[in-house]
Structure formats: C-alpha cells, structure tokens
Design a protein that fits this description.
Keywords: Cell membrane, Disulfide bond, EGF-like domain, Membrane, Transmembrane, Transmembrane helix. The protein has 778 residues and is an alpha+beta fold. It has four domains: 145 residues, Sandwich (Jelly Rolls); 111 residues, Jelly Rolls (Sandwich); 134 residues, Sandwich (Jelly Rolls), CATH 2.60.120; 196 residues, Rhopdopsin 7-helix transmembrane proteins, CATH 1.20.1070. Helices cover 21% and strands 35% of the residues. The protein is built from nine helices and 41 strands. The strands form nine sheets. It has a seven-stranded mixed β-sheet. Strands 1, 2, 3, 6, 9 and 11 form a six-stranded mixed β-sheet that branches. Strands 27, 28, 29, 31, 34 and 36 form a six-stranded antiparallel β-sheet that branches. A hairpin with a 4-residue loop joins strand 40 and strand 41. Helix 4 runs antiparallel to helix 5.
C-alpha cells in the first residue's frame, strides 16, 4: 500500500483550541477520460473557522489479470467544480480558465494506494474533488466480451476548526499575547469597503522592542491562492498590511504566529481600519452624482434607483425619474424623505483621505431554467459609465446551484458616444469589485485575480466566458478612462449595453455536441459531449474534426451498405423462405435509418426517435442471425417457426435489459448454433455420410459463408475504433448480409405424396405421406 503526503500552505496546526471533524462520501468507480462526464465529482462543505483541511484519497483496484498499472488524476477546487483539460484541447474564444490544482495517484504493484493532501486555512464553503483515469483509447469495446478492471476512488475530508477566536472591531486595538500557540482572529468586512488596513502596534518580544510575528491573512483557494503572509520581524513598526477591495460582507480570518521559539513571548495590539465601508452604526454622508446627458431613447419608463456609496461609510439614493421630480430615499430606513440638495457633501476619513464614490447599478436576476440565469440592469437598457466613479453591477451567483454552468458577459458600447481617445475598462471579480481604475488596470483585488475587458472606438464589443464560476457574489465594475485630455473625459458618459447570462453549456455545445446535465447527489452541473471528431469544452476544437464531405461519406457508407441485405432477401423469396425474407427486410430498413440518424452534424435524418431506431436495429440484427442459423438446421416447419418466435421474444427481452451487453445477443445465437450442429450430427449418423452431402454445397456456399461471418465477427469485436467506425461497421453490414445469402439452405426436394421407401420380405412396402404424416402398408 503506497502512502503519499502533500501540503498546501502552513505546515501544521496546533491542537489547542481546535476541534476535529470527519466527512466522507461513498466510493465511486472511475472511468477512462473522454469528456467531463467521465470524471467522478465529489462535493464537500468546509465549515467556517477551519484552520486545517486534510484530504485522504484512497484508490483501489481489482486483483484480476485485466488490471494494469494506472495513474489516477485528482483535481481540487473551492467554490465550483474544477475546470480540467486532460486531452489538451482548445477552449472557446474569450474563455478565461485557470489550470486546476491536481494530484496524481499511481497504482502499480500494490492494489491500494493512499494520498494525503493538507490545506491550511482553507476557504469556507463548497469544495469539489474530481477524479478520473487516463484518457480513453479509441477502440470500441463490447460490453461483456473482455474482462474489465474496476478502479475505485474514495475521498475523506478531515478538518480542524477554531472554537476560541478573537474578533477585531474596526479602529479598536485588540491586545494579544503569543506564547507557544498561534492567535486566531477575524474581522468582519462590510459592503462598500474600499480598503482594509491591518496593523500590529506596540510589539514587544521577551520584554524588548521588536515584532517577530508572522501574520497570515485570508483563506487558501485552489487552484489560485492569494493568501497574504506578512512577516513583521525586522520590519519598521507598526507592521502594516493594506488590502485593496477586500471581500465584502464576510468574516476575514487572521492568524498570528510567534517567531521567537516555543518559550518566547510576544505582545502586540491588532488594529483593523476600514476605508469606505458602512459599519459601526455611523450615519453616512451623501456623495452626489455629476449630471450626465441621457439619450431620449434610453430613458426608463420607471424610476431608476442608483445607490451611490461613498468613502467613508455613506450611501445615498438618487432616483432618475422620467418626469422632472426630485425625490430622495434614505438607504438605511428605506422610506422616502424630503431631499435637500447635497451638492458639496462628502467627508474624508480612513486611509488616504478624500471622498471616494461608486455607482451601484441595480441588477435583476431572472431564473429561466436549471443552471440558467439572466441578469439585466433594472432599466433593462444600459449602464452609464463615467470617468470619476466606477459603475458596479452585482451578479448574485451565491445560491450554491449556480456554479455548474458557464457565465457569459457581453459588453457593447454606443458608437456615437465613445471617441478615439476614450476607453471603457471593465473588471469582473468575485467577492468584491475592483475599484482602483485610476491607479491600475490589472483587476486584482485583495484575494482574487479579476477578468479584464475593454471597449474602445476600434473595438466596441467585448466578450468573456467563465466556465464553472465560483459560488459567490460577482461584481462587474466599469469606468471611463482617457489617455489624452482628462478634462473632456470628466464631462463624457458612455452607455454600455450588457448581456449577462448563466447557461448550462455555451451555445448549447454547437452543432457537433450535446449539452448533458449531470448530477452528483443533489448538485447539478453540465458538460458537452462532442461528436464527429470535434473536441473541447464547448465542442469548438476542430483539430481532429471530420469535414462535411467526410461526414456525408460516412453516412452514405453506413446506410447504403445495408442494401447488401437485398441479396438474402432475394434468395429467401426465391426459395420460399418468406419469414426469413421479412426479417432481413426489417433489418435492412431500420439499420439504414438508424445509422442515418446516428450521425452528427449536417448529414442527419431521423424518421423516428433515436432510441426507437437503435432498439429496432439491434433487434433486427440479432433476429436475422437467429433465423438464419435455425433455417440451416432444417427443422420441421412447425418447430422451426415456434423457435423463431420464442427466440425473437428472448432477444427483445434481453435488449430491454441491457442493450449494449454482447452476451444478451450472443447467447440465443449460440443456442441456435447448438441446435443446428445437433441436427447435422444426427443426420450424419442416420445417413452414414457427411451432411450436407454435396461437395458443391460445401465449396461454394458453406465455407465462403462461414468465412465471411467469421471475418465480420472479428471486425465487429476487435477492430472497430472511433476513427474507423464508419467503414469497419459498413464492412460488417456487407459481410453479415453476404454470409446470410450464402448460408441459407436450398429448398427441400419435392417428394411424391406417398413415398414407399422400404420393402418387406413378404412383398409388402412401408409407405409414408410427408404432407399428412400418415403411414400405410401395401
């Protein structure tokens, strides 16, 4: 048994003040990877105040000869299922993807392998684990024909969380003393917080000045990790850490550790200062919006409420009415009140000084279907973007069921409003918006790397696709910037039309894919299953794709090859095997239209549902083999037709139980072969000569027919792959129909009504009537 340990973050968590919890899920059998549905997904929930997360990954396999060495890949991600790409395919254009954090678990000589993965200070909430085997081979395996090996994966989650934790209130020093164990703190970050400043003041180590403290701020999120670690040893006092745009409306965890050894003592005071937030019960000061022209066609039919948040601690509501009325609402009370003109208000405070405002654009969320959401501004038209304040839109993707689709963002600027020197920059971030457009355009907040977009006179459209967005509030912030004349930019305003959707699959996986909804317990997520050689997350990678001509050629080969069944139909009719001819005609018809419906892309024709055509095709193929073998046995007419009917019913039942099981069809056919062989052996012993008696029958019919059937079975069971399916399966059609035409026996020789075959010594004969089955002695 192999055992491996991997660590992410700080090595060890102490035991004092911590409690342990254990979570487990039922094991699942792994599959070789071909698309996202091949991966096995597990969903865990990490409780708040967790300081250590340990994954125990156990992989086992069968001990049979079919089991070979394999390497299992395990992916981790917090907030959403991991976005993986084992096949190395291309993602759709404008898609933003981070490489997943993965661990490889080898299985070689030992049938059991364990891996331990440690994550210090993990983010609370949903964590997802996805596991799969290496990419699948192109060979088409028949179920039940060859032995298989079961690889089983089971993850366990062990957590240690804090039960003794100190709360840091804004602007209130919190004294702390470090001895041998870390000190766990947390501070609440309210909405509309622009910056968070953390300070360690008055540090004293063993009675002397100094600050040998390591401060860990924020959670670990995989695959990206933006946790901040501040080492205050040797740094000037007070030791500070400034966090721009910290995550809103949540607790932020802090861990302080002493660096002086197990017997040293460090004393300090922790101070948190919030800039631009609403906290402490302070009454806000309004920050006015500068007037901006609005196109008459863009005026809303209902009052549009814009929340303007100012630094520090203030929010006002300024409605834009279609009429000229002025009315102000108190944001905290929610009731209308007389609105005085606040033209020069705004109070400096916190860090940095000077007022700071943002325009909070209200957004409506419309749930349209499973993992399908439409976001749009309240006025259903556009968002006004200016240069002095960023416009922020909040997208609520925090229900826990929104992370299984793809978030698509499309921006389009008005052609008449955007000029050559102006640029509309936008950032899409989770947890908190990016607000520092005047100093940087990297879209980086305290613990998240945002996704940038831009609009200009040369590019008035911008698109962004985020597969499996994290469960959180997402913020789209926009601001107008000018590269030359900033004074003209201050008076300018650009109306940006936004199209914001959460969809299960991008473009419904296109014409060469199928969007499938997957489920793990109560969690739903979507993935694309591609066809015709197309690959990728949205079936847009055409590196191995078939051309339209190749698709048409494949369809023609698979359908027209069934015309070979005209040969056994003609032979059956000529020899008065009318039931057999009907079976061959049924097989030819449904096999032709099943393969016409089974093709992807443009060359598709479905006269019935796909499932119905597939069932009829499989039923016809099995029944055709069954009746051909029984016809070769030359049974009595009544017995033959009884076996025809019973065999067809058994094949129909077996296909309903398991349509892909090879033995469900092979079993009845082998039984028919045993009946035929028994009848032939009986006739050989009864007649004292080989049956059939004619060497021409063996040389020109039986041996060629058996050879064609043997080659067809070999191709069907061992040579078909995804790439050569269209011509190897067409050859199977030809060989199956050709062997049936050759193996059908000739019609029985006509006999007289009374055939006297045996003479008795007393000049009498025993005569038999084959039609009436009567005997007489003459």
């Amino acid at each position: 048994m192999a055992f491996t340990r991997l660590r992410v973050g700080v090595p060890r968590a102490p035991e004092a003040g911590l409690v342990s919890e254990h979570f487990s899920q039922a094991p699942q059998r792994l599959s070789f990877y071909s698309w996202y549905g091949s991966a096995r997904l597990f969903r865990f929930r990490v409780p708040p105040d967790t300081v250590l997360l340990r994954w125990l990954l156990q992989v086992s396999r069968d001990s049979g000869a079919a089991c070979t060495d394999a390497e299992i890949t395990v992916h981790f991600r917090s907030g959403a299922p991991p976005v993986i790409n084992p096949l190395g395919t291309r993602f759709p254009d404008d898609t933003s993807v981070q490489p997943s954090f993965q661990v490889r678990v080898p299985l070689s000589a030992a049938p059991l392998s364990n891996v331990s993965v440690n994550v210090s200070h993990p983010a609370p909430g949903d964590w997802f684990v996805a596991a799969h085997l290496p990419p699948a081979s192109q060979k088409i395996e028949l179920k039940g024909l060859a032995p298989t090996c079961a690889y089983v994966f089971q993850p366990d989650m062990l957590v240690k969380r804090v039960v003794e934790i100190s709360i840091v209130e804004p602007d209130v020093p919190l004294p702390q003393t470090l001895v041998s164990h870390p000190s766990y703190l947390k501070v609440f970050v309210p909405e509309y917080t622009r910056e968070l400043l953390l300070e360690l003041q008055g540090c004293v180590a063993n009675g002397s000045l100094g600050c040998p403290v390591r401060l860990t701020v924020g959670p670990v999120t995989l695959p990206g990790n933006f946790q901040k670690v501040l080492t205050c040893a040797g740094a000037p006092q007070p030791c500070r850490l400034l966090l721009p745009s910290p995550p809103w409306d949540r607790w932020l965890q802090l861990t302080a550790e002493s660096l002086v050894g197990p017997h040293g003592t460090v004393a300090f005071s922790a101070v948190a200062t919030l800039t631009g937030g609403l906290h402490g019960g302070r009454e806000g000061w309004p920050c006015p919006l500068p007037p901006a022209p609005r196109h008459p066609d863009l005026l809303p039919t209902k009052p549009l409420v814009l929340l303007v948040a100012c630094r520090p601690w203030s929010v006002t509501v300024q409605p834009l009415l279609q009429s000229g009325q002025n009315q102000t609402f108190n944001a905290s009370a929610g009731w209308p009140s007389p609105g005085p003109d606040h033209q020069d208000l705004g109070r400096s405070g916190g860090v940095g000084g000077g007022p700071f405002c943002l325009t909070n654009q209200p957004v409506t969320r419309e749930d349209t279907d499973v993992v399908s959401v439409h976001f749009q501004p309240l006025d259903r038209l556009s968002v006004t973007v200016r240069s002095d304040t960023p416009s922020v839109m909040r997208l609520r993707l925090n229900t826990g069921m929104d992370s299984g689709g793809s978030l698509t963002v499309s921006l389009r600027a008005n052609q008449t409003e955007i000029r050559n020197e102006t640029l509309v920059v936008a950032c899409l971030n989770a947890a908190s918006p990016f607000l520092s457009f005047n100093t940087s355009l990297n879209c980086t907040t305290a613990f998240f790397q945002g996704h940038p977009l831009s609009l200009s006179a040369w590019s008035r459209k911008a698109n962004l696709i985020i597969p499996y967005p994290e469960t959180d509030n997402w913020y789209l912030s926009l601001q107008l910037t000018c590269s030359e004349n900033e004074e003209d930019c201050e008076q300018a305003a650009v109306h940006v039309e936004t199209t914001l959707y959460l969809v299960p699959c991008l473009n419904d996986c296109g014409p060469y894919g199928q969007c499938l909804l997957l489920r793990r317990h109560g969690y739903l997520y979507a993935g694309c299953s591609c066809k015709a050689g197309w690959r990728g997350w949205g079936c847009t990678d055409n590196e191995t794709a078939q051309t339209v001509a190749q698709q048409k050629a494949a369809t023609l080969l698979l359908t027209l090859s069934n015309l070979m069944f005209l040969a056994p139909i003609a032979v059956s009719v000529q020899r008065f095997y009318l039931v057999e001819a009907s079976v061959y005609a049924y097989t030819m018809f449904f096999s032709t239209f099943y393969h016409a419906c089974d093709q992807p892309g443009e060359a598709v024709l479905c006269i019935l549902s796909y499932d119905t055509l597939q069932y009829c095709d499989f039923l016809g193929s099995g029944t055709a083999i069954w009746v051909t073998i029984l016809c070769m046995a030359r049974l009595k007419t009544v017995l033959k037709y009884v076996l025809f009917l019973l065999g067809t019913l058994v094949i129909a039942m077996s296909l309903q139980l398991d349509r892909r099981g090879i033995w469900n069809m092979l079993g009845p056919c082998l039984f028919a072969f045993v009946i035929m062989a028994s009848m032939w052996v009986y006739r050989c012993g009864h007649r004292r000569q080989c049956y059939p008696t004619s060497w021409q029958r063996w040389a020109f019919y039986l041996l060629p027919g058996v050879s064609m059937a043997s080659v067809g079975v070999a191709i069907y069971t061992s040579m078909m792959t995804s790439d050569n399916y269209y011509y190897t399966h067409s050859i199977w059609h030809v060989l199956l129909a050709g062997s049936a035409a050759l193996l059908l026996p000739p019609p029985a020789e006509p006999a007289e009504p009374w055939a006297c075959s045996q003479k008795l010594p007393c000049h009498y004969q025993i005569c038999k009537n084959d039609r009436e089955e009567l005997y007489t002695v003459t």
